[in-house]
Amino acid sequence: MQYIAGYEVKETVSSSGSGAIYRAVHPIMKRTVLIKTQPPEAAKSAEVHKRFQREIALAAQLTHPNLMTALHAGLDNNVLYMVMENVDGIDLQSQVKASGPLPVATAVDLLCQAARGLGFMHEHGVIHRNIKPSNLILDKTGTVRITNLTAALISDDADVKKPTDELTRQGQFIGTGDYLAPEQAFDAHSADARSDIYSLGCTLHYLLTGKVPYGGGAGQRSAMEHMKSPIPSLCVARKDVPPALDAVFNRMLAKVSAERQASMAQVIDEFNAATKGSTAAAPTSASETNGGSNFPLLAILASLLFGVGLGFAVGKFL
User: Fold this and answer.
1) Which domain, by its residues, includes 15?
2) Where residue 143 sits, what CATH number does that domain have?
3) Each residue of 267-296: pLDDT tens digit?
4) pTM for the complete prediction?
5) Treating both helix axes as pointing N-terminal to C-terminal, what angle do 297-305 and 104-123 enclose, rounded to 10 degrees?
6) Are residues 71 and 97 in the same domain?
């Protein structure tokens, strides 16, 4: 029987480059929580250890309904850990893989929630820099939670406590290539709120088509596609996408950041305006969604309640 900081570990939820996630129960309080432990590399790398410390500090300072809530943190056998609220849900990448592309109205609703959480972060001077479907968790109440602040950038005028040491070097690649804004690919320091808007736009494409906007690939190859390839059309991929929503998406993926929406609040307004009163929001046949799913939001939540064969697994946090 494994224990971490007095909590009895019940299962391993995920294990990735940003650390392992466990579901655990306090034997006296009977409270179920998620516990994230530092990645093994942290024992050998001071930078990895500091980055995990940084994630804990940010999670503790940023409280919002669309963010994961940190309860406390500490050391157990020289392993740094963070205790978080237990979120029963599924990451949006796993949801799409399990059930196919989402209905337009559902995808927009989920990303409006994510945009509210990101807007809150931006207001406090924090840029996520790694927005993608696997870092967005849909819980059984229908609430989207943003996870993984490992790559977050803290601005000089942020009202959260900024560490004295700078972990991101000039020109360093931070984030995930398939969802990375062009300006962020070659200089992570250049990322701002509009970089997260770009990544959210790429996420919209995935939720509606089951594919990343461009061909995919690692490192410089993927970055060049984002910089030079034409922005794909959602209307071509799916007949039920309103042209107005395609226009919003096109602006989110503008190659030059100044041509994108100025804030997450503007993204939300444009999402709502583009889909308001649209009769195309809920497709009537699988062929209309290019092979996608017909599940409305309630059906998605129902599938979560029955596990979707995934046992309420919280997806990879990185």
Assistant:
1) 3-85
2) 1.10.510.10
3) 999 999 999 865 433 332 333 334 343 344
4) 0.81
5) 80
6) no
